[in-house]
Amino acid sequence: MATTPLPQAPDPQAMHEEVAEFPDNRLLIDLCGEFDRNLAELEEQLAVQIMRRGNQLAVVGEPEAAQEAVRVLQSLYERLESGKPLDHGDLDRAVRMGPQTQPQGRTRDGDQLEMFRGGPVEIKTRKKLVEPRTKAQKEYVKTLFSRDLAFGIGPAGTGKTYLAVAVGVSMFIEGRVDRIILARPAVEAGEKLGYLPGDMKEKVDPYMQPLYDALRDFLPGKQLAKLMEEGRIEIAPLAFMRGRTLSNAFVVLDEAQNATSMQMKMFLTRLGEGSRMVVTGDRSQVDLPRGVTSGLHDAERLLKSIAGVGFTYFSAADVVRHPLVAAIIEAYEADG
Hints:
Blueprint: E1 16-21, H1 25-32, H2 37-46, E2 49-53, E3 56-61, H3 63-81, H4 90-97, E4 123-124, E5 129-130, H5 135-146, E6 149-153, H6 160-173, E7 179-184, H7 200-218, H8 221-229, E8 233-237, E9 249-253, H9 261-268, E10 276-281, H10 295-303, E11 309-313, H11 323-335
């Protein structure tokens, strides 16, 4: 199994110092983190030493490492200056992904596509402003706004479903679609539906929970409950899509690797006038019975050359969960 080598200690003969100044002491405290946790993590990742001198941070190490550490610190400070918090993992992503394009002003209200003309890539929802972080995530969001059918394919934790639901909520708020429909194949991953207590809805709801969680992030609880009661937001197993034509709706099929070829064809042909469809999946997590071909595999093979269909691929570098998740995915991919 492949292992990731630890950073080498700096060569004493090649020591170099870079100094960066951060005028706002309050933001500098947030940048350093509780008990200077962020600085310690950066020191470990890049094999440098960081010392605080008033409102300056001095980075000592090999020239390239010291310069990279300063770049990371400055990019995170600019994030704090723009009013955005430093979430867990932001530092790790800044190190892994290199320089990110900085926001150049807010988008025009009511026109999310304006974000693609030099401005920031952001998604407005009722509860929060969602910001895709990686290059693949930004391209994915652009595709979601510009294509009637989009595929997001890659490992868990890369934001495929979360960003799709955020775009759906944004388009619903702006009146571009009348409904949001979220579907998942109700496929067991090691346990049988029949062994779970309750009626069919109670059996299926645990499989739909990630979709409920995403919606709760973007819409106030009472509003979400009302919209679901009115049928304007719907979460259902994939089988419930049969026989329907989905017009003026934003439709997401999550965990599409667990749809059969026939189910995938059935789902894709539900696309109606004024609707958008998003299909998300992870090729490495197929729970279908042995010998059954994944509908995601077939759809990718058959539709890739069709104009108007967008495909975005994610990798471990796009993971936005705990930094260890990226390392875990890379380890399994190396072993496979």
